[in-house]
Amino acid sequence: MNMDVPIKNLGGNFIMFLPMGIYLPYFFSRLNKISMFSISMVMVLFVIEVMQLVMRRGSFDIDDFILNMCGALIGFAMWKTKTVQKMNLKFLVK
């Protein structure tokens, strides 16, 4: 079996939404809490999956949903680290 396709699928779905975990709380201060961030990401991912189903450009795949959510949560965890917060403050001061 060619393992290239599953690895690209897993990695792509995981990495694709990692930046969302950083950019959403940066631009929308209401999303700095994990609960609000999680709720908003679930809604965004649900809309994306339904659009794929309706437009017949993919399928409603729970694996994609879970991997995208995990990627976003890891990005959110990265956003919450003190190192990134210090970098953010330096960026805003300039």
TrEMBL record:
<dbReference type="InterPro" id="IPR006976">
    <property type="entry name" value="VanZ-like"/>
</dbReference>
<dbReference type="Pfam" id="PF04892">
    <property type="entry name" value="VanZ"/>
</dbReference>
<keyword id="KW-0812">Transmembrane</keyword>
<protein>
    <submittedName>
        <fullName>Teicoplanin resistance protein VanZ</fullName>
    </submittedName>
</protein>
<feature type="transmembrane region" description="Helical">
    <location>
        <begin position="34"/>
        <end position="55"/>
    </location>
</feature>
<feature type="transmembrane region" description="Helical">
    <location>
        <begin position="62"/>
        <end position="79"/>
    </location>
</feature>
<feature type="transmembrane region" description="Helical">
    <location>
        <begin position="12"/>
        <end position="28"/>
    </location>
</feature>
<keyword id="KW-1133">Transmembrane helix</keyword>
<dbReference type="InterPro" id="IPR053150">
    <property type="entry name" value="Teicoplanin_resist-assoc"/>
</dbReference>
<feature type="domain" description="VanZ-like">
    <location>
        <begin position="11"/>
        <end position="80"/>
    </location>
</feature>
<keyword id="KW-0472">Membrane</keyword>
